């Protein structure tokens, strides 16, 4: 399966996806750590993908998403943004609403 198909498969399978460096339990960069922490704080059921485990994915995702850095947060296959955007969404209360939407639409893992 080509790397873009693999990205699309993950996005099609999970409503809320955080592509990050490391894992939520063991983040490997401060921005990834902060994004995962904000999602946990609002109770968002998200699927995390460690881009450090897959160099091909890590290289392809910035082109796929047209976003140069990690983390990258997607809702229903659409890029929301990185750490700064996640912080803004949390501050405005929008992250909580998006988390509830992802939960209501089901199958987050």
TrEMBL record:
CDD domains: GRX_PICOT_like. InterPro entries: Glutaredoxin, GRX_PICOT-like, Monothiol_GRX, Monothiol_GRX-rel, Thioredoxin-like_sf. Keywords: 2Fe-2S, Iron, Iron-sulfur, Metal-binding, Redox-active center. Gene3D superfamilies: Glutaredoxin. One of its GO terms (molecular function) is disulfide oxidoreductase activity. Glutathione binds at residues 21, 58, 70, 83-84. [2Fe-2S] cluster binds at residue 29. PROSITE patterns: GLUTAREDOXIN_2. Pfam families: Glutaredoxin (PF00462). The keyword Iron applies. Residues 17-79 form the Glutaredoxin domain. Belongs to the glutaredoxin family. Monothiol subfamily. This is Glutaredoxin. It comes from Metallibacterium scheffleri.
